[in-house]
Amino acid sequence: QVKLVELGGGLVQAGGSLSVSCLAFGSIFSSSAMGWYRQAPGKQRELVARITTDGSTNIADSVKGRFTISRDNAKNTVFLQMNSLKPEDTAVYYCNAFVLAWGKDYWGQGIQVTVSS
To answer: Could you tell me if 72 and 83 are in contact, meaning their C-beta atoms sit under 8 angstroms apart?
Structure first.
């Protein structure tokens, strides 16, 4: 059974830093592209950052230079380091795993990140 569990998040002042991590259960991690998405109230879910199995990354323009995605295959964990946070970064952040061999997406339950002005 595949399960993604997000950790971290919380409340931070603008300009501050926060990190979230996602632990993957189900022996899929090494064969999955991992990503972080976010959804703010009244808005569509959007890609924040993505990292492939070989470590290549794709970062949304809105967070480029501020957010960093990384993965630890030995720990089945993907990380999102968020620096210079802005109030507009406030959203529920979701971990995503795309299993390449199956062509299937899995999602975590989401974790709240709130940036106060």
So the answer is: no
Mean pLDDT computed over 19-37: 93
Chain mean position to CA 2: 17
The mean per-residue pLDDT over the stretch 34-43 comes to 97
- What phi, psi does 31 have (nearest 5°)? -105, 15
The region, left, alpha or beta by phi > 0 then psi within -120 to 50, assigned to residue 9 is: left
Model confidence pLDDT, tens digit, residues 51-97 = 999 999 999 999 999 999 999 999 999 999 999 999 999 999 999 99
List CB contacts of 97: < 8 A, sequence separation 6 or more.
2, 4, 24, 28, 29, 32, 33, 34, 35, 105, 106
Task: Report the candidate in 78, 75, 80, 73 with the shortest Cα–Cα distance to residue 31.
Answer: 73
Task: Tell me the pLDDT band of 26, cut-offs 50, 70 and 90.
Answer: confident
Is the separation of the CB atoms in 50 and 80 below 8 Å?
Answer: no
